[in-house]
Specification:
Elements lengths: L11 E19 L5 E21 L3 E5 L11 H12 L5 E7 L10 H16 L6 H11 L3 H6 L2 E5 L4 E4 L7 E7 L6 H13 L12 H9 L3 H6 L2 E2 L2 H7 L1 H12 L4 E4 L6 E4 L3 H14 L3 E7 L5 E5 L8
Parallel strand pairs: 1-8, 3-4
Antiparallel strand pairs: 1-2, 1-12, 2-4, 2-5, 5-6, 7-10, 7-11, 9-10
The chain binds adenosine-5'-triphosphate (ATP).
């Protein structure tokens, strides 16, 4: 990796850090490093955090709008800045302001999106000149979903999720998301629950589940109904067995008109593929009445993970 610190063209910038959903998540087995070997199709969605970066002479200062998200070295955004500082021996500082919109511990990669935004933004702000590939390599050291978030869009992810192959973008798939307000699920717990379940040899339904070729064909043909029918998430059953609300929401989305519904990542957020944004909004309004303890979002698929909005303020004072 070659950091080439240049002059610093920007004093500050704001990034849109988009969440993701998993259209497909198949667990192939365990790896010697303790992670699971997976095949996933990840899709960026319009729901996003805002990440504001301002250059400072020294240090990393973090401000976060969400009271339950740590604003210190435990925060993935902080860790991303620290990693760049170390790797590039950049004697530069930053103030990071996180405006959280993505629900936390929801299976939507909120923390990963913020970390990816910090990598992309600081590469500009500190003038490091790193390529997208180099940023993704650094991202993989911080977490499995972060390399995806750097570029986003629609991607096939293998390995532990860090080996990426971009697929054709499909912008504007209408989506309705539902998350029990006070429930978060730890990713580590969900994978462990899957392993326990598999070890207990509960009846395998793998052969009746959608397969990767099916979902890839639906994506290639842009067949929304076929896509809705090929959704798969191997973590869904173990999470659902523990948290019945996840299954109830999935069923409620289908009854409210979703062509297909699935838990995203390790949950507990469930998304429905809707025939249109209008119908998604109608379904949200009616479901809200039945599920007052659940948050809903009407959103859609998006072609990129991070969007950089150059700061309109003037450059460095002379
Ligand atoms: P994934 O889908 O990648 O598994 P998630 O959406 O389930 O992620 P996050 O919202 O990223 O989960 O949060 C998981 C944990 O990470 C939380 O307990 C939170 O305290 C911690 N965390 C660290 N940094 C952040 C951040 N910037 N935003 C949200 N959570 C963060």
């Amino acid at each position: 990796m070659h950091c080439q610190p240049r002059s610093h063209p920007m004093q500050a910038c704001t990034l849109i850090a988009r969440a993701k959903i998993n259209l497909y998540l198949e667990i192939l087995g365990s790896r010697p490093d303790g992670y699971s070997e997976v095949t996933m199709i990840l899709q960026s969605i319009a729901l996003a955090d805002r990440v504001r970066l301002q250059r400072r002479a020294h240090g990393i200062h973090l401000i976060c709008s969400h009271p339950e998200v740590p604003a210190d070295g435990r925060n993935l955004a902080y860790q991303a800045a620290e990693l760049l500082q170390k790797e590039c021996q950049a004697d530069l500082g930053v103030e990071i302001q996180l405006e959280k919109q993505i629900p936390v511990a929801a299976g939507l990669a909120g923390g990963s999106a913020d970390a990816a935004a910090v990598l992309v933004g600081l590469n500009q702000l500190w003038g490091l000149g790193l390529t997208v590939g180099e940023l993704q390599n650094l991202a993989a050291r911080l977490g499995s979903d972060i390399p995806f978030c750097v570029q986003g869009g629609t991607q096939l992810a293998t390995g532990r999720g860090e080996v990426l192959q971009p697929l054709a973008d499909w912008e504007g798939i209408p989506l309705l998301l539902a998350k029990p307000r006070h429930l978060g699920v730890s990713t580590a717990w969900a994978y462990q629950a899957f392993r326990t379940r598999t070890a207990a040899s509960l009846p395998s339904v793998a052969s009746s589940l959608p397969s990767l070729p099916q979902v890839l064909a639906a994506l290639e043909q842009r067949d929304l109904l076929a896509l809705a029918r090929s959704l798969r998430n191997d973590l869904e059953q173990p999470v659902l067995a523990e948290y019945a609300i996840v299954g109830k929401l999935r069923q409620a989305l289908l009854e409210a008109g979703a062509w297909g519904a699935l838990m995203s990542g390790s949950g507990p957020t469930v998304f429905g593929i809707m025939p249109s944004l209008e119908l998604a909004a109608q379904a949200r309004d009616s479901l809200r009445r039945h599920f007052p303890e659940v948050d809903f979002w009407v959103t859609q698929s998006a072609p990129t993970g991070i969007l950089l909005e150059p700061d309109p303020q003037p450059l460095d004072p002379p």
